[in-house]
Amino acid sequence: MFQKIAVPVAAIVIFLIFWEALVWINGWPNYKMASPSDLWPAFWKFRDLFFTMGWDTLWRTVVGLGLAVVVGVGIGMIMGFSRLMRDALYPLLVGFNAIPKATVVPIVALMFVGAHDFNTVLIAFMISFFPIAVSVSIGLSTLEPEYRDILRSLGASRMTIFWKIALPKTLPEFFGALKVAVTLAFIGTNLMEIVSPHGRGLGALFDSGKTNADYPLMFAVLIALAFLGIVLYYVVVALEKIFAGWAERSPT
Amino acid sequence: MTQPLIDIKGVTHAYQTQSGPLPVLDNLNVSVPEGGFAAVVGPSGCGKSTLTRLIAGLMKPDTGEVWLHGERVKGPRSTVGMAFQNPVLLEWRSILKNVLLPLEIVPTKLSKKEAEDRARHLLELVGLDGFEDKRPSELSGGMRQRASLCRALIHQPEVLILDEPFGALDAFTREDLWQIMHRVKEEEPFTGVLITHDLRESVFLADEVIVLSGRPATTQYRLKVPMDGPRDLEHLYTPETAEMLAILRHQIEIAQGRAPAESSEVAE
Ligand SMILES: Nc1ncnc2c1ncn2[C@@H]1O[C@H](COP(=O)(O)OP(=O)(O)OP(=O)(O)O)[C@@H](O)[C@H]1O
Ligand SMILES: [Mg+2]
User: Fold this and answer.
1) Does A18 fall in a domain?
2) Is A118's pLDDT higher than 50?
3) Which residue of A131, A192, B47, B91 lies most exposed, with the fewest beta carbons within 10 A?
4) Minimal Cβ distance to A147: which of B57, B88, B92
5) Across residues A1-30, what is the average pLDDT?
């Protein structure tokens, strides 16, 4: 347990020292590369903004991800259980996923002008539901027929088989996808926040740092984003431990 | 003669594949009396698993009828227990909870406590006492297969269908399980169908061996095995057993098309 915390913390400290040294040795000015020692003052100056904006980014990411889970699992179920629907939906999904979301952001921003929260959640959702849908559909469609047969031969309904076997068996794949999705949703949120005018969230804070040429602020936002990203990721890891911990093989 | 418990009457079945229909069973007749234990052997891919799926009601035959206990099989029924080569235990459940799974589907008169006691008893019978709370991943292949057998039996099925349950196990573990099967059969009355590739297994466990021809399968040969209760492994080395094995091996060669067919015969 100690090692689990101490090692990553040590790695971060070493990284910061290395960064500071790099800036110091090269004599880079602030506008080229801020050093870690500049970040804390920048953060402290705007700490209220950091908390409110950080909260905006966080809740919109989580809501977008929640939507992605609901819709992704739904689509995954439809594709996992029906061969026909899989053949029909797969190319559509792949095509949709292939569109760079950076191009969708301005479109959405124009379509729903002013609905900033809605736009941001929408982008977070759009960018992150794909891996969830794919993993669930693959998990369900690759279920060995024997698993179905042990319950079906007793007269169990499709729904019972789904709840008792198919769903739990898919959980490890689902959480694998959720780890990817949470990072994507986070990126989606920030894309929208940076692009939309008069936005809120850490992305908007970054943008205002850019407008005011406040480079330490921009870097401080990046660090805050990294921090939030880490927190979100490990929340998913914790959920995985609780709900799919059985899939973890003990190292022997 | 009393009515057989499992009665397969003139069943013909073909799978629809991309390259047209694939006939798998051709006018197949099999009957097993109540308390009987029939082993089905035949060339690989001849339709043995298909036969088990028809008995279990997981599929309907194109023509012909499947009867269980005087009732026409039209779909799955809770009086059937199944075990496969793959033990398919649910990794997120303990062994005990895995064994109890069928009782969550099948209506049961047992209370929770009684059901658990029964599961524990079955696990003890197959030598898995002390492993109730372990996860499947903590068990060896043979142990998982034993747990899978308990799950197939927990709801006291009339018919036990075993599709190559010991096929993936090493020889020693398999012989262990053969003896366990005899113990189980003594305590838990069931009518059994055992699919196997192992002729020694078929004559050791079953009281009748049915040889299926190559695809599409029909009954090619039936061999009654004198069975007087549980037996030990010595039995495999008697001259009678050797003789039965020779007959069966010859029949398999005919089914595979490696030996010329004689006029079909049924030994009683
Ligand atoms: N769902 C299916 N669709 C199409 N063809 C199938 C299907 N299931 C089985 N078959 C084909 O039917 C034939 C019989 O299959 P089955 O599984 O009953 O054979 P088997 O005797 O159990 O074989 P094995 O000894 O290898 O277990 C095989 O040739 C197989 O390829
Ligand atoms: Mg088979």
Assistant:
1) no
2) yes
3) B91
4) B88
5) 87
The mean per-residue pLDDT over the stretch A41-48 comes to: 85
- Residue B145 is predicted with a pLDDT of 93
A1 has a pLDDT exceeding 80: no
- Give the 3-state secondary structure of residue B211: strand
* pLDDT mean for each 10 residues of chain B (268 residues): 83 90 90 92 90 92 90 89 92 94 90 93 92 92 93 94 91 89 90 93 92 88 83 84 89 82 54
Spatial strand order in the sheet of B219-224 = B80-84, B159-163, B191-195, B37-41, B208-212, B219-224
Residue having the nearest C-alpha atom to atom 2 of ligand 1: B15
Which residue ranges form the domains of chain B, and what is each CATH number?
Answer: 1-79+193-268 (3.40.50.300)
Chosen for mutation from A83, A147, A150 (greatest number of chain B CBs closer than 10 Å) is A150
Residue-wise pLDDT tens digits, A56-78:
899 999 999 999 999 999 999 99
Q: What CATH number does the domain containing A202 carry? A: 1.10.3720.10
Cα separation values, B168 from B49, B127, B141, B181, Å: 16, 19, 8, 16
- The answer as to whether A55 is a domain residue is yes
Q: What is the rounded average pLDDT of the residues A101-122?
A: 83
Task: Please tell me the pTM assigned to this model.
Answer: 0.81
What pLDDT is attached to residue A203?
87
Partner-chain residue, chosen from B84, B91, B106, that has the shortest CB–CB distance to A154: B106
Does the beta-carbon distance from B58 to A152 stay under 8 Å? yes
| Structural domain includes residue A5 | no
Q: Is the CB of B48 under 6 A from ligand 1?
A: yes
Structural domain containing residue A156: 43-245
3-state secondary structure of B110: coil
Interchain proximity A146–B105, CB inside 8 Å: no
- How deeply is A27 buried, as exposed, middle or buried, from its count of CB atoms within 10 A (0-12, 13-18, 19+)? exposed
Q: Which residues of B touch A152 (CB under 8 A)?
A: 58, 76
Q: Is residue A147 within 8 angstroms of chain B, CB to CB?
A: yes
The position carrying tokens 């002013």 is: A114
Q: Find the DSSP H helices in A112-214.
A: 116-141, 145-152, 158-161, 167-195, 202-211
The answer, yes or no, to whether residue A2 has pLDDT greater than 90, is no
A167 interfacial to chain B (CB closer than 8 Å) = no
Please tell me the predicted confidence (pLDDT) of residue B50.
Answer: 93
Give the DSSP H/E element, type plus range, for residue B192: strand B191-195
Interface test with B, best of A151, A154, A165, A249 (most B CBs within 10 A): A154
Pairing of strands B159-163, B80-84: parallel
Q: How many Cβ contacts (< 8 angstroms) between chains A and B? A: 58
Mean pLDDT (chain A) is 87
- A107 within some domain: yes
Number of independent structural domains in chain A:
1
Give which of B130, B120, B179, B127 is closest to B154, Cα–Cα. Answer: B120
